[in-house]
């Protein structure tokens, strides 16, 4: 049961980070050249969170 809760939490966090990264494309004030770097950072951050969550349990 605890494993299922951890996986759901990690999945929700990953989706949230992905959506935050995608909103970078829709901000007219920012240049498009900075958007891919933000998305790569979000993917790296979500992978790090997943790895840390699995180390905890």
TrEMBL record:
Know the name of this protein?
Uncharacterized protein
